[in-house]
Amino acid sequence: MTNQDQSPSPAQAGVKKSVALSGVVAGNTALCTVGRNGNELHYRGYDILDAAEACEFEEIAHLLVHDHLPTACDLSAYKTKLRALRGLPAAVRTTLEALPAAAHPMDVMRSGVSALGCVLPESRDCTPAGAREVADRLMACLASMLLYWYHYAHNGRRIDVETDDETIGSHFLHLLHGVAPGAAHIRAMHTSLILYAEHEFNASTFTARSIAGTGADMYSAITGAIGALRGPKHGGANEAAFDIQQRYADADEAEADIRRRVEAKEVIIGFGHPVYTLADPRNRVIKEVARSLCLDTGRSTRFEIADRIESVMRQTKKMFANLDWFSAVSYHLMGVPPAMFTPLFVIARTSGWSAHVVEQRADNKIIRPSANYIGPENRIFVPIEQRGRAPFGPDMA
């Protein structure tokens, strides 16, 4: 082996080692900044706290996917376009009908996106315009996929998924409940989807970018991102948060049990964040959404339980609630089944994922990090015909 063939190890090369890439800069983005001062979040330079309660989700989707905030005329045209993309091809409906009622809704979303990619594939040249068309179609019809399967699998009904609802959030709630939602629920959905839309190089976004970096199509990148979001340490945390909250009949019972669990050093999902150090800025917004929904529905028990647990975690562990904690309360108050909490995350985050795919393609690089090898060294290779003559294992090295 020549000197040119001998590549230095990551340590020799000065490559920063990290647990799970924490703190390692893995690329450039113009889409989002997270936690630069401990508790900030900006989308393309706009503070999320200025947008979350003032904008419709479609405005933020347009900002992320199409690079700029729309004018009133732009927004009207964009919403009209998205409404026209809610339908599902027959082959996709057939695929969804084949999925069992016991399937997790996230698996349904993953399968639906993959099927749509076979029926209406992205053009082979993978242009930014083509990618944005796929992004718009997916955001428009993801709720259609999920609720078409849900009603067919559980009730044997083939529903019409092309509603006249103006927005993605109201379309979801209409298909779920069979009636058009009220203004309070539509506003709550706008805010929730905006808060979930984008979050820099999180696990699912990094997955999407890694897939895009290979030159794969948009559907492959989004399917992979859905798979990453499926896990309870990422998108599934909102389901896990609700599982915790629904253990208790009232806030006093919740406080007593959570204090016991904290003393036993149990992990309480829904608190802390790997990037924010002071607070999750999204929490203050979604908490007010949940509070408002309590007033609208006249049901406050779940909110009171979540609020008390938040106080206990702050007092005992100095830990703050993240977005998932009161999102679980909000979705519950809107009648969304817990297994659909993370699919709503998918609908929102598809805007951010898609924008990252376009950005990664422009970078035109494959993502290929190095590993810190921790296995055995210089082991002696034993031909197969000799392996039965003596114990074979690590001690033969």
Query: What string gives the helices and strands in order?
Result: EEEHHHHHHHHHHHHHHHH
Provide the residue-averaged pLDDT: 92
Distance between the termini: 22 Å
Structural class: mainly alpha
What is the share of helical residues?
40-55%
- What does the overall shape look like? globular
Q: Quick one: biggest sheet?
A: 3 strands, antiparallel
Taken as a percent bin, the fraction of beta residues is under 5%
Residue stretches low in confidence (pLDDT < 50, at least 5 long) are 1-16
Report strand order across the widest sheet: 1-2-3
What does the radius of gyration come to? 23 Å
Count all strands and give the number. 3
Number of helical elements: 16
Report on the architecture of this protein.
Strands 1-2-3 form a three-stranded antiparallel beta sheet. The protein is globular and about 75 Å long. Mean pLDDT is 92; it is low at 1-16. The protein has helices at 48-51, 57-66, 72-83, 90-97, 105-119, 128-155, 168-177, 183-196, 203-213, 218-229, 237-245, 251-263, 281-297, 301-317, 323-333, 341-363, and strands at residues 32-34, 41-43, 46-47. It is 54% helix and 2% strand. It has 397 residues and is mainly α. A hairpin with a 2-residue loop joins strand 2 and strand 3 (46-47). It contains 16 helices and three strands.
